[in-house]
Design goal:
Length: 320
């Protein structure tokens, strides 16, 4: 069975979407989140508690490049504050190490030694230029424990990818076409066909950055338009996925984000009959928002959009 690996940063609403679905993810054996921790706070710790209580599988980035742990000298505090106290007794997670062009063989060996009793994952954010780094990856004591080689984007040479067993490959791409202004999103566009045999001919494990994209920001400013991003099947109830964008009527000032949110949500709800699946818990939340007019913040829209995408993938979203 092929698996889907959503790559999510550990910000509040990404974590809340995963927390809502932790039990379903644990039961599915089809979805394994990749989590890059970016906050050293209570929300992260509570989330890890809930993930472990549900026995949810996940890859956990041990050398983040964003947020509170982005500096190399903070990676030890990540281990001391989160990994060791909360994950040391948990068996259903995999430590993951990100490779960049400058990653050294010593860094790879140090990571592997720190987690010498576990399977590990390697996440290629770039391709190492040092031969010693590649030799460290090929060392049997390390290579035999690598459960997943996660290739992000197009930064790894094809010959290296092809040297990895197909069962260990995870192909992750940013499928979200980010716009500078919410008002600039088109009504609808192609998202991915990696969930189908036609788009994923080798039948590899795959992933994406959902409706967030790979671009990281600490927080956005006030937006003139509110946009709901909604992933759904291109046609019918199976096959490739599209993403539709529902924009508020008012787009010229930053006033009334609550009212603009309801405008955008109402546009989505009006279209839901034609966008499958439309029976997820997130869709029910959208319908209730449109009915009641209650606003729970812009972050809640992102949470629901991610949740809906994950619910889709959990419910026969992979047709390989």
């Amino acid at each position: 069975m092929k698996k889907y690996f959503p790559f999510l940063r550990g910000k509040l609403n990404e974590l809340m979407a995963l927390r809502y679905l932790a039990d379903a993810i644990a039961e599915s054996n089809q979805l394994i989140p990749i989590i890059e921790p970016v906050r050293n706070n209570a929300s992260t710790r509570i989330s890890l508690d809930q993930f472990t209580e549900a026995a949810m599988p996940f890859l956990f980035i041990c050398n983040p490049r964003h947020g509170d742990f982005k500096k190399p000298d903070s990676h030890q505090s990540l281990y001391n504050d989160l990994i060791n106290p909360q994950l040391s007794e948990y068996d259903n997670w995999i430590p993951a190490y990100q490779l960049f062009s400058g990653t050294t063989g010593a860094e790879v060996r140090q990571f592997a030694a720190q987690y010498d009793k576990q399977e590990i994952a390697i996440v290629y954010q770039g391709f190492p230029t040092r031969q010693a780094t590649l030799e460290a990856l090929r060392n049997e004591q390390i290579s035999n424990r690598i459960a997943h080689h996660v290739f992000v984007g197009n930064g790894t040479p094809a010959d290296h990818i092809e040297s990895i067993n197909e069962q260990q490959r995870v192909m992750v791409s940013d499928r979200f076409n980010s716009q500078e202004r919410n008002a600039d999103y088109p009504p609808r566009e192609f998202f991915t066909d990696m969930n189908t045999r036609a788009g994923n001919r080798l039948g590899l494990d795959f992933g994406d950055f959902s409706i967030v994209g790979d671009q990281y920001s600490e927080g956005g400013g006030a937006a003139m338009a509110v946009c709901v991003h909604h992933i759904h099947y291109h046609k019918g109830d199976s096959g490739p996925l599209d993403v539709s964008h529902f924009i508020s009527d008012r787009t010229e000032t930053t006033a009334d984000p609550a009212g603009k949110t309801i405008e955008a949500v109402k546009h989505l709800v009006e279209a839901l009959d034609e966008l499958l699946p439309n029976d997820t818990d997130a869709c029910d939340e959208y319908r209730e928002m449109a009915r009641s007019g209650d606003w729970r913040g812009l972050g809640f829209l992102k949470r629901l959009a991610i949740q809906h995408h994950l619910e889709l993938m959990l419910d026969s979203g992979i047709q390989l």
